[in-house]
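User: Can you predict the 3D structure for this chain?
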Amino acid sequence: MTTHVIATAGHVDHGKSTLVRALTGMEPDRWEEERRRGLTIDLGFVWTTLPSGREVAFVDVPGHGRFIRNALAGLATVPVVCFVVAADEGWSAQSTDHRDAIAALGIRHGLIVVTKADRAPDLVAATIARARSEFAHTGLRDAPAVAVSALEGTGLDKFRQVLDDVLAKAPEPDADGRLRLWIDRSFSVSGAGTVATGTLVAGTLTKGDRLALVGEGREQREVVVRGLESRDAPADALRPMNRAAVNLRGVSAGDVRRGQALIAPGAWLMTSVVDVRRIGGATLDEVPAQLTVHIGTVAVPARLRVFDVGHARITLDWPLPLIVGDRLLLRDPARHRVLGGVGVLDPDPPQLLRRGEGTRRAAVLAAMPAEGDVLAKVAERGAVEVDHLRRIGLVGSDAVPPAEVRQLGGWWIHLSTYDAWRRQLRSLVESDAQRDQLTPGVSQGAVRDALGQPAAHFIDRLVADAGLEQRSGYIRLPRARADLGRAEAGVAKLEARLLANPFLAPLAGDLAALGLGTRELAAAERAQRVLRLGEGVVLLPSAPALAIQALAQLPQPFTTSQARQALGTSRRVAIPLLEFLDGRGLTRRIDDEHREVVR
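Assistant: Here is the predicted structure, written as structure tokens:
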């Protein structure tokens, strides 16, 4: 059964620690000073098992305003909250701060607990009504409420039942997601070394994992998971949701602290500039330019550049692993006040260097969906590596490019950009030929310099698609091109069509409309202008080489369906093309369903 982690919230002295102590039989206040003063200062961690068998851990947060940073470090890493209001004191100042934090963080699952019900039983109903009104415009608007007396033990069974119901409706965590464990505590254990703890929200931690330790502007450090524990029990692997204690090799305890994160190496973009949209709280033109940004357990100083009341750019003092959709909480460091929340629209935004670009950027962001716009990002860059799109959270592992985007190898290229490269290459070669009829062509180095990065990665494909040829390291116009007489016009149109879409072989009716029958196509094939595959499938001679380039990017072995999707064609074309490649020894058939590219 899935485990769950729940954070407490509410005003100081409203009984959060007393409640979880009564529920778990464990002491959440770790420091002697906390127990002496009866005041929670830092995060506490306790756990229990509900009657249903669900295992739950509580992150007990401080309720005093002076310790709001510690409270936010606990609230910002969990999806479920237990909001506490004392019956005898009612809604109080820090109740509002914690409510604003919950709204800013987008927490949608939890329950309201009226504590100390024995002290003011006649005020319980009013306290619940006030709490419901305070949460009316937040994700907890429909949260259930229960009254308890932790000291007398009344209402605790009802609390457990209601909490079970809440957790049953909470979404399942993503065990296959990318690992990002925000560290909330670190210490050294004699004989074991450095231990870091945090709430595992997504991904799976496994003993022996190699991870990157990031944060606080320090260089990434590779660490190895030496051992794992959750709720004082050792484990070989941990899935979300879990409290995780990670024994690390490769770093000293003094170099690990709250606000850092353990991430899967290469899976995240470390960014210090993000474009965001207001989700709740103050409008962004009311937020001070200097502020503190909270995500996970980190609190980082930042600067705000407002585009309009709902969109802005945030520049962090050090880079963090952020993706599209992350929720950031904004706080005024001078007044220790929660200002509101924003969602990350673009963790890798373009530079704004010219006058008026801020206004234009506001319009772009206003039209952008909350989950980001992958087509806009590809259009903005012209060409983007798919791995980069994954790192910033715009696509998943099984992403399919939009219709306006062409995939070549590990890149997504906007069609307008690719067409511009192709035309630029053709013009470059034609200009060279006009200057000197005897030229061997334009060198590959000159072409790469002219087209720049990342077009240089796709020279071979561009040469083929531009109707050019390569010989001895030079790119030139095709030589000794045979004239096909009355079929020349139709073949030329067919070539142009296949240059644009190399694997979309025309149907018989399309060929007839071009005046290309069996005799005309045979002549074109003899002149090496076309390649005929099977019954009625006509492609360019460059098609097999282009197909191999695309198929080599697939996981090997691949199915016919995967090949068809990679080539952007139909089974009518894919099957004879694959059989042609088999016959030439370019691909190898493994069984009835699978082939692989011969390396």
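The radius of gyration is 31 Å. The longest helix spans residues 415-435.
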